[in-house]
Specification:
Elements lengths: L6 H48 L2 E6 L5 E2 L3 H6 L20 H17 L3 E5 L8 E7 L2 H4 L4 E7 L1 H30 L4 E4 L5 E4 L1 H6 L5 H7 L12 H11 L3 E9 L2 E12 L8 E8 L1 H23 L3 E5 L5 E4 L1 H6 L4 H5 L4 H10 L9 H9 L8 E6 L5 E8 L5 E7 L1 H22 L4 E5 L5 E4 L1 H7 L3 H5 L4 H6 L11 H14 L3 E6 L5 E8 L5 E7 L1 H50 L8 H32 L7 E4 H18 L3 E6 L5 E4 L1 H19 L8 E8 L3 E8 L5 H8 L13 H10 L3 E7 L3 E9 L3
Parallel strand pairs: 22-24
Antiparallel strand pairs: 1-2, 1-5, 3-4, 4-5, 6-7, 6-10, 8-9, 9-10, 11-12, 11-15, 13-14, 14-15, 16-17, 16-20, 18-19, 19-20, 21-23, 24-25, 25-27, 26-27
Helix pairs in contact: 12-13, 19-20, 20-24, 21-22, 22-24
């Protein structure tokens, strides 16, 4: 056997041992390597498990037999007491998926198993606000085997809430944006938005209407600017300046709005995130035309108001909210001795009070600081304050302090010194009136508009025999007079007194009346409306005048009877005198005509003398009858056209023989414009003839030579003036008689001046006599043209 152990065998054994040793060493090395790799893989697996566990997403494997491989987190996410091991355990009574969600997930898994279709589901476990997002797809065989589905679950609660919040914020922002857009579009003033390159990107309807464009897109496309360049600065330049400044910029400028030039306040506002660069420029333009107009009107109103205050007699001053003097009119400056410096420097009210106190323009008070502060507090009051100031010089001021809405003060001072003096004088006048009323002979009472007795004198009280306390109660007129009816002879006449008083108080008409008292006294009464609305009742005792009236009535009846007798006498005398005179004249004319045969010359001269005497006597009878009728007021004058020149020529012709007999110069100066008048020609001829006859007769005895009588006449469209003058001795006694209305003496063949005056007056004219002793007499007659 030993022989059999050959070297080859030994070599083979040694080689085998060596190979075995090498294999053992390799196996040992490989085991150590695999051990290290296994440890590394285990570590990696544990690390991956920790990463998966810490991952916000949870992997879940659903195998073909519906078993589930997942960590315990799945149970916590679904609100289950423990992790589910199969698909059905995903449902619970009050936890896990609800039936609809469970069935929806089942159908999605079946779809992934059959068609390898990926799906995404959002599920919410029961009783939980958690939202779980499932991403599912078919799993590889290495992961879960054939037919398995890999689900990745993620808790999207915070994300979904953030997404919902973001959606809500987005919806709110969109709603706010739409509301803002609607507000901008509905804004009555132009608004716009510029992009960073200063081009218009948005304009509202007011902007489109202002530039008179068709649409907003047309404005944006054409870049139509609302504001024109002013001083080389365009609208985009102004917007660029606002972006550079980083703050809103505004300017006031004229802008053409719908073809009308208006004053606008244009504002450019840079829009940028806080601390960021502006993303655009927003702008708007506000029409301040009316505001500027109102400001101008306010300035004009203030100017006009101050001019008006300057013209007021009351002293007025205005103080601003800072209590500084703003304005003082001229009366205020004079009353409080304000200088131009005081007004210019706008001194405060407190300072002015000090100045006025030094100048004696404030009342003397015991505690001046307290008084001063109380008046400074006028600015803080809501209502007006009124005071009366008595200055040391005796001036009485009524001061009114009216706070103004802007916190200022309007101070009005009225000098009532004269009113106080007038009030004192009024009191004196009232006392004088009372004394006057009480000492009048008439009974006087004053009734107010409501019919109550207001004033009365003692004679009124004694007349009606009324107690003083009754009158002091100021009774109504109906009550007062109702108790006085028994004082009258006819008690029902008291209603007349009441009606007269009522007419004066209500109708403002004056009434009179008369009453007789029971004791026989007669009283006239009258009610007179007074300017103050009252009525004055005056009662005058006319008892004596009534007695005198009775006597005068009896005498008047006697005079009327005598007048009738005189009228009858004149009528009879007119007949008795004219009849025999007419007979004598008739027989004389028959003798002159030779009816009784031819008369010798001596008899004819006697007959001529008789006829002359008949003519003179006829004129005298006419004069006497006219004078008597004039005195009786029964003188009748006929109105016919009278040629004045012809009338005066005839009067001169008739008077010329008498003037030549008396050796007097008779001259006439007759104007060519005398014309005609309406009158009684025979009587006017007798008037002129009588005046010429008297002038010749009175002048001739004193002037045997150089006597002169002048008849002068002139006329116009109103009437005729006739003047008869002489240079005789004058007749002052006659003029005195004419002035007294008495008949002047007449001479044979003349007419009395009294009769001439009556005849001229009957023609609507006037007669004036002027006579001076030794210088002559002038009689002027003015006769109207008449109709």
């Amino acid at each position: 056997m030993s022989a059999a152990l050959s070297p080859t065998l030994l070599f083979a054994i040694g080689l085998f041992v060596a190979l075995w040793l090498l294999a053992a060493l390799w196996a040992t090395g490989r085991g150590l390597a695999m051990q290290r790799r296994s440890a590394f893989v285990a570590g990696q697996t544990e690390r991956l498990a920790s990463l998966v566990e810490a991952s916000p997403q949870l992997p879940v494997i659903v195998r073909a037999d519906w078993r589930i491989e997942a960590s315990e987190r799945l149970g916590r996410w679904l609100g289950l007491p423990q992790g589910p091991r199969n698909f059905d355990e995903l449902r619970g009574l009050d936890a896990g998926l609800d039936a609809a969600g469970h069935e929806q997930l089942r159908q999605a898994i079946l779809g992934a198993q059959r068609g390898a279709k990926a799906f995404v589901l959002n599920l919410r476990p029961q009783g939980s606000s958690r939202t779980i997002v499932l991403h599912g797809a078919a799993a590889s065989q290495a992961v879960g085997g054939p037919g398995s589905v890999l689900l990745w679950l993620s808790d999207a609660t915070d994300g979904q809430q953030s997404l919902a919040q973001a959606r809500r914020e987005r919806d709110e922002a969109m709603a706010a944006f739409e509301a803002l857009s609607g507000l901008i579009e509905a804004a009555p003033f132009p608004m716009w938005f510029r992009e960073p390159d200063m081009r218009l990107a948005l304009v509202n309807g007011a902007y489109v209407r202002a530039v008179e464009a068709k649409s907003a897109s047309a404005v944006i496309d054409a870049g139509v600017e609302l504001c024109e360049p002013i001083a080389g600065v365009s609208a985009s330049d102004a917007a660029e300046a606002a972006r550079t400044a980083g703050t809103a910029q505004q300017r006031t400028m004229p802008v053409t709005i719908e073809g009308e030039r208006r004053i606008m306040r244009v504002v450019d506002v840079p829009l940028a995130p806080e601390g960021g660069r502006a993303i655009g420029i927003a702008g708007y333009a506000i029409d301040i035309q009316e505001l500027e107009s109102e400001r101008g009107a306010h300035r004009r109103f203030v100017s006009t108001q101050r001019e008006l205050l300057d013209r007021l007699s009351a002293a007025v001053a205005q103080f601003g909210p800072d209590q500084a003097l703003v304005f003082a009119n001229q009366p205020f400056r004079r009353l409080f001795a304000l200088s131009a410096e005081d007004v210019t420097e706008a001194r405060t009210f407190a300072r002015l009070l000090d100045l006025w106190r030094e100048g004696g323009r404030t009342p003397e008070v015991r505690d001046y600081p307290e008084w001063r502060q109380a008046h400074v507090d006028w600015f803080a009051r809501a209502e007006a304050s009124e005071e009366d100031w008595l200055l040391r010089d005796g001036t009485h001021l009524h001061v009114v302090a009216q706070p103004t809405p802007d916190g200022g003060l309007l101070l009005i001072a009225e000098d009532r010194t004269e009113q106080v003096q007038l009030a004192g004088a009024r009191d004196t006048l009232l006392r004088v009136r009372t004394a006057t009323f009480d000492n009048l002979f008439e009974a006087v009472a004053v009734f107010a508009p409501d019919g109550r007795l207001h004033l009365w004198n003692q004679r009124f009280r004694r007349l009606w025999n009324v107690e003083e306390h009754t009158l002091a109660a100021h009774p109504r007129v109906d009550v007062l007079m109702g108790g006085l009816a028994d004082r009258l002879a006819k008690p029902n006449q008291i209603s007349i007194v009441q009606e007269v008083i009522r007419a004066a108080t209500l109708e403002r008409t004056q009434r009179v009346g008369e009453v007789r008292f029971a004791d026989g006294r007669h009283f006239d009464f009258a009610s007179i409306p007074l300017p103050d609305g009252n009525a004055l009742l005056i009662m005058l005792d006319i008892t004596a005048s009534r007695k005198m009236e009775g006597a005068l009535r009896e005498r008047n009846e006697a005079l009327e009877a005598a007048d009738k007798v005189k009228t009858a006498f004149l009528s009879r005398m007119s007949y008795e005198l004219r009849t025999p005179l007419t007979s004598i004249g008739g027989f004389g004319e028959m003798l002159q005509a030779g009816y009784a045969g031819e008369l010798p010359p001596s008899a004819r001269s006697y007959v001529d003398a008789i006829m002359d005497s008949v003519g003179v006597l006829g004129r005298q009878i006419d004069n006497v009858l006219d004078l008597a009728q004039g005195e009786a007021g029964t003188l009748a004058v006929e109105r016919t056209p009278v040629d004045v020149r012809a009338l005066l020529d005839k009067a001169l012709t008739d008077a010329k023989p008498f003037a030549e007999t008396e050796k007097m110069e008779l001259a006439g100066q007759l104007s060519a414009s005398l014309g005609t008048i309406a009158g009684d020609a025979p009587r006017l001829l007798r008037v002129i003839g009588g005046l010429l006859d008297n002038a010749i007769r009175f002048t001739a005895p004193t002037r045997r030579s150089g006597g002169r009588v002048l008849l002068h006449a002139d006329g116009d469209e109103k009437g005729v003036e006739i003047v008869v003058s002489d240079n005789g001795p004058g007749m002052p006694d006659t003029v005195a008689a004419i002035t007294a209305g008495q008949q002047a003496g007449t001479q044979s063949g003349g007419i009395g001046l009294a009769l001439a005056r009556q005849l001229v007056a009957a023609h609507g004219g006037t007669m004036e006599v002027m006579s001076e002793k030794g210088q002559g007499t002038l009689v002027r007659i003015i006769l109207p043209r008449g109709t």
